[in-house]
Write a structure and sequence with these properties.
Order of helices and strands: HEHEEEEEEEEEHHEEHHHEHHEEEEHHHH
Number of strands: 17
Helix content: 25-40%
Number of helices: 13
Strand order of the largest sheet: 6-5-10
Distance between the termini: 20 Å
Shape: globular
Strand content: 15-25%
Bound molecules: heme C
Length: 473
Amino acid sequence: MRSRKLGAVLLLMSLTGVAGVLATGDEAIPEKALSAGSFTVARIDASALSEPAPALSYAQRERFLRGRHHFNHRWVQFPSLGGDWGLGPTFITNKCVNCHVGAGRGRPPVSANEQPLSLLVRLSVPGAGPHEAPLPHPHYGDQVQNAGLMGQDRDDTFLGDRVPPEAEVFIDWQTTTVAFEDGEQVELREPRLRWGRLWFGPVGDTTMTSLRVAQPIHGLGLLEAVPDADIAAIAAHQRTIGFNGRVNRVRDDIAKREALGRFGWKANQPSLAQQIAAAYASDLGVTSTLYPEMNCPPVQVDCAAQPPGNQPELIDSDWQEITFWEQALAVPARRNVTDPRFDRGERLFAEAQCAVCHVPELVTAREVPHLPIAANQKVRAFTDLLLHDMGDALADGRPDFQAGPRDWRTPPLWALGLSQTVSGSTAMLHDGRARNATEAILWHGGEARASREFFRRLPKADRDALLFFLDSI
Ligand code: HEC
Ligand code: HEC
């Protein structure tokens, strides 16, 4: 009865486009449709990933809105108007939301001469940096900034002193075809990085690069609240059934110690606060108390000569507010839970052993001091937060702390089916090569090879049921 009510409501919302009317409270959402316990919302339109957890208090909701403002807010160069001062000197774009549209996923460039925006390039040279971090390239650092304060930022009218971008980056695609056992063929594409103008000389033959597309960022406050011990226990269990999930051990720059990595495609970030400060530093060129240095390797003299917009450019209270916003982002309800294909797909998901890595349910800690409503929640994110060897075809060849060249963190699958609606992109896998879930599964190798082969051998009706399930969760 209750589930029929939700079905009718969702149907009405999608027919009329009036979404979010019933987005508060989870009373109307049946248990089977809950994706994130009390963090579940009914909204399924373009704002589906941008809702606050319904249980936030009035004061917390205000804080959430201030955090949202920072996420959508534009950074500019001093003394331009219309934004906070501190963009650059080198950067990729001027707001978080440009890459995470609607808090959703990014996309690789469409044409051969388009500069990537929500697909970034990490780079490093052989050897290890401080605390076993990747060793940054001496001229380009650990991430390419393909914009500099010389007019690329078209909303920014003040051109002042000129700082070149570090490099131009282009993506070419190589395609191959694979066939299901029943003969149906699928074209797969793989990106090849092509450097355009390199302002500070060749990158060198031994430089390792890694393409990373922007991830969807809803519900991460709950994933941050899953106890370390539970994640380690999943890894130990996997070992007994022939899988090899491993935690990444990374540097916690805030607590100044080693910590379990959870965020990013290689789980190289231990906390949302740090992930966000790193994004300010590397993606926007904005300094913070955590990363106070301007991002200007020694050869980049015009970069280093720029006056900062403020010291630091990101003030601590804004950093705390955007971190709170990120932690309190809700998750849309699962859809179609009464359709028989949902159960059939779920069964196949288990049989194919997808569920070994894409773990259907985690539970958050009994106490979450910074956000008590996040405690004790069932998190149906479909991740184990562990690294897996995904085979040579997906390898970037670039280690990241304990993550090896073929290792990737299992990405959450919740709200996968809303990707197109939210940000207009269904690009999946770390470099966005997969255009849909079918392609993503067909790229699985290494530890997930048997799962892929199981999928490849399924009759069409079963494949469709599995895809229907993925689209609904
Ligand atoms: C230039 C595009 C770009 C911008 C701008 C950007 N991000 Fe990201 N974001 C990414 C990419 C790419 C990743 C994955 C990074 C990796 O795997 O190394 C990511 C990862 C994340 C994650 C972790 C997601 C997960 O599942 O682990 C969070 C949280 C996040 N970004 C928040 C932000 C916030 C907040 C801002 C603004 C301060 C921001 N991002 C700005 C591209 C961007
Ligand atoms: C051994 C662990 C493992 C198994 C088993 C596994 N996956 Fe994955 N899955 C991953 C990892 C790791 C990635 C990310 C790979 C990358 O980014 O290159 C991934 C990515 C995905 C993605 C893309 C998600 C996104 O946001 O980019 C989908 C969809 C997916 N898996 C579905 C499945 C399905 C369906 C099955 C079963 C047929 C399955 N996976 C089996 C580990 C696994």
